[in-house]
Specification:
Blueprint (H helix, E strand, L loop, with lengths): L2 H17 L3 E7 L7 E7 L2 E10 L6 H10 L3 E2 L1 E7 L4 H6 L21 H16 L3 E8 L14 E4 L8 H10 L9 E4 L6 H9 L2 E8 L4 H18 L4 E2 L1
Helix pairs in contact: 2-7, 4-6, 5-7
The protein binds zinc ion (ZN).
Length: 245
């Protein structure tokens, strides 16, 4: 082997090792239940915040599911990334928003509830209570663009549910929008608390910042997925997490 090639090979191997997760974990939340759903954890070698990315709170919002699935396989320098690609797996497999009742109004949920959506919310809340992420990003989609809704509601909006606005919101949006040349793609922040939603309930129970990210369904699926990825990357950078993908 030529010396230069050998040096390059060693460098490549060392780089790959540096990018690997220190600890990888996958499993099932509510294991054994009909509504069980998978989770994935990558823990970087260096310390850092715990961050949760989730998709599929609404089963027909495909871009968020696909973007979350993408983050299952990224590698971190530091911190911990938890991914739940399909929060309501049953609804996502059927391609419907929800099956019985609005899932995103059921949190924290009840173990003995009639509808599985509430029992699933209960299991997810227990899981979040064990992991206590500092940041939760829930990926959604909207049929209306914010420009048609007073520039406050709909797609291309990041919703938050506590006042004052969480510390990392403004900085993250600046980072995200810096990568989006067209102003209609830009994200704006809107205060809009929702009773029983993951963001509000988990923040109240466990602390941490939580956001609902809405992309506009008028853009092609691939672009919506890319927009969700931009948002997640912007928040990770804002939180000081080194992401390599
Ligand atoms: Zn949604």
């Amino acid at each position: 082997m030529k010396p230069l090639f050998r040096v390059c090979l060693v460098f490549l191997l060392a780089t790959n090792l540096a990018l690997a997760c220190d600890k990888l974990e996958s499993g099932l939340i509510a294991k054994g239940e009909p509504f069980q759903t998978e989770f994935h954890v990558c823990k970087g070698k260096a310390p850092g915040p715990v961050i949760l990315v989730n998709g599929g709170i609404h089963g027909d919002e495909v871009a968020g599911i696909k973007a979350a699935e993408y983050f299952r396989s990224v590698r971190l320098h530091n911190g911990t990334l938890i991914v739940i690609p399909r929060m309501n797996r049953i609804a996502s497999e059927k391609g419907v928003r929800f099956e019985n009742i609005e899932f995103n109004h059921q949190f924290p949920g009840r173990a003995d509830a009639k509808f599985y959506e509430s029992r699933l919310a209960h299991a997810l809340t227990r899981f979040i209570g064990e992991r206590k992420p500092a940041l939760i990003l829930s990926l959604h989609e909207s049929h209306l663009h914010r420009l048609k809704k007073g520039n406050k509601f709909g797609g291309q909006v990041i919703y938050y549910g506590v006042k004052p606005a969480p510390a990392n919101l403004t900085g993250a949006i600046r980072r995200i929008n810096a990568h989006l040349p067209e102003p209609d793609r830009h994200f704006v922040a809107t205060y809009y608390p929702v009773n029983g939603a993951t963001s509000e309930v988990w923040t109240a129970l466990f602390g941490g910042e939580a956001y609902a990210i809405e992309t506009w369904r008028g853009y092609a699926l691939e672009e919506r997925i890319a927009l969700h990825k931009d948002v997640v990357r912007g928040f990770l950078q804002q939180m000081g997490m080194g992401l390599m993908d």
